[in-house]
Amino acid sequence: MRTKGLLPAQPNQSLIKGILCLQTMIFEARPIGTRELGRRLNLEHTGVNRLMGTLAAIGLAEKTADCKYQAGPGIHILAAQSLQSSRLLACALPYIRTLMDENLLVSLGVLWRKHVCYLFHGDNRNTLENGIGASKPFLAFKSSIGTAILASMDRSMAQRLMLQGPDRLSKDEMNLLNRRVNDTIRNGYSMVTHNPASTTIAVAIGKPAIAGLAFANINLLKIKDKRGYIKRLSGRLSDAVHRIETDLFGT
Amino acid sequence: MRTKGLLPAQPNQSLIKGILCLQTMIFEARPIGTRELGRRLNLEHTGVNRLMGTLAAIGLAEKTADCKYQAGPGIHILAAQSLQSSRLLACALPYIRTLMDENLLVSLGVLWRKHVCYLFHGDNRNTLENGIGASKPFLAFKSSIGTAILASMDRSMAQRLMLQGPDRLSKDEMNLLNRRVNDTIRNGYSMVTHNPASTTIAVAIGKPAIAGLAFANINLLKIKDKRGYIKRLSGRLSDAVHRIETDLFGT
DNA sequence: TTCTCATGGTGCTATAGTAGCATCACCATG
DNA sequence: CATGGTGATGCTACTATAGCACCATGAGAA
Fold it and tell me: Which residues contact B201 (CB under 8 A, 6 or more apart)?
């Protein structure tokens, strides 16, 4: 299986920039103007205007009354096609259903640039379908899923990813992430404690990782044997991850 | 809300072609070579080779051992982002769950070129999550969802769509579709009888339609009051569609 | 075994498409 | 009213791209 990175002869810059504009617009989840998008991505605004206009012409974007761009009707087609091609959500959902018997939030997410985007985020207080597409992107370096995925990447590549661009991580942030990545590699799962009552653990799916599966909102304050509890939960995650991998990759 | 079609000054042809290549590769659901893709889309193969190489470089495609291209790891990101942006599946699933009490197959699909691509296809013999991404594309002119969506389109645009390219509809096929479209406009739902034991009805979602919701595999042989039954089912579909539209568009 | 044909991929270079500057119309704010 | 920001376009220099020619490889047929 081939990882991304190697450029062909004559890579097509318009396509690279166009897809970046599309994904950034989707990520923002609000109408966004071409100059803002251009500043955001460090692209010249005229070019962005043409790319967004082109995306609008093919239906993936649409213009709002105030001439900003948001996702257009073609996004539903893209969702249908990519969802079926990916198969990740379809494979993972049955295991997510069983994991929800822990009475914890379960999350399935992927890493896009410096954020985790969620395919699923829900618990058994709601029906399974309410968890689909239910969570907004979250900073990867603060996320257990993000940390798990980054920990599975080549170290220098992960470093480069988090340190490039205007939204690069600060020194402190990078040090925090590095510690968590080291722990993740040692433990086989990542752990982020947002506050004493809210801890998240995650396991990466795939090698190289394509996604992460997490238990979220774990309240350790109520748990006597914290280590044993975390060990059990991470074991369940790893088990589910192995099954998902088998379903996806047939290994 | 803006529909697609109007080209900006300087539309970007590389982006248009690149996304077409991406979507066609995904649609094929198998590794595909650049020359085949070029013939398929009537594009020069060198350009396709560069576009596919570029898509591979950004992770949306990957090369197989025999140098063909299939979806790459970036597809999961695209799925997560487009699923959340689209919101269609998330909005529709609760209503799909209730519709499944008819003990019929329920389908949610979108129109891509001349095919319907499915977000959902399942019944209550399986869990809801087994229906996600569960069905392959199907020829739109033979599909009730396709017919419903086409019936909601401007007539000349639908005509042009189905009559262009090497896979254009035959005269007979076009006549059949036109009859069904006329019936759909009159009835408010589309109906396709695949065989006496298998009828599908569908209602378009949105105006202009972004998708269609269907009951499939209806066995009319067992039904005394066929007209009443279809009227009731289509009423349930329309009801669900209105609710989905309200959730999606706030109308 | 050899030959033929189809494949994916690249170099080269002409050129068409694109990038970016300048400009415009419009809107919001002070 | 002036100012500044916006999205969009025209123009044109220029460069990224398109397409031809070629290569290496593999599969199938004779």
Answer: B144, B189, B190, B191, B192, B214, B215, B218, B230, B233, B234, B237
* Alpha-carbon span A90 to B51, nearest angstrom: 29
Residues ≥6 apart with Cβ < 8 Å to A109: A116, A117, A118, A119, A121, A135, A138, A143, A145, A146, A211, A212, A214, B80
Which tokens sit at B29?
């659901």
| pLDDT < 70 stretches in chain B | 1-5, 251
Tell me what the pLDDT averaged over chain B comes to: 92
Are B93 and A23 a contacting pair at CB < 8 A? no
Tell whether A139 and A68 lie within a shared domain. Answer: no
pLDDT (0 to 100) of residue A2: 39
Residues of A in contact with B210 (CB under 8 A): 73, 76
- A51, A138: one domain: no
What angle do the packed helices B13-28 and A45-57 form, to 10 degrees? Answer: 40
3-class state of residue B217 by DSSP: strand
Q: Do A83 and B71 touch (CB under 8 A)?
A: no
A55 and A110 in a single domain? The answer is no
Whole-model pTM?
0.94
ipTM value of the model? 0.93
The one-letter amino acid code at A145 reads I
Please check whether residues B179 and B127 belong to one and the same domain. Answer: yes
Question: Which tens digits make up the pLDDT trace of B229-241?
Answer: 999 999 999 999 9
Q: Is-contact A132 A119, C-beta < 8 A?
A: yes
What's the gap between Cα B179 and its chain centre?
Answer: 20
CB A77 within 8 A of CB B140: no
pLDDT tens across B115-134, in order?
999 999 999 888 888 899 88
Distance of B67 CA from C6 C1′ (whole Å): 14
Which chain A residues have a beta carbon less than 8 Å from that of B86?
71, 75-76, 78-79, 133
- The answer to whether the CB of A100 falls within 8 A of the CB of B139 is no
The CA distance from B83 to B89, in Å, is 7
In a shared domain, residues B143 and B183: yes
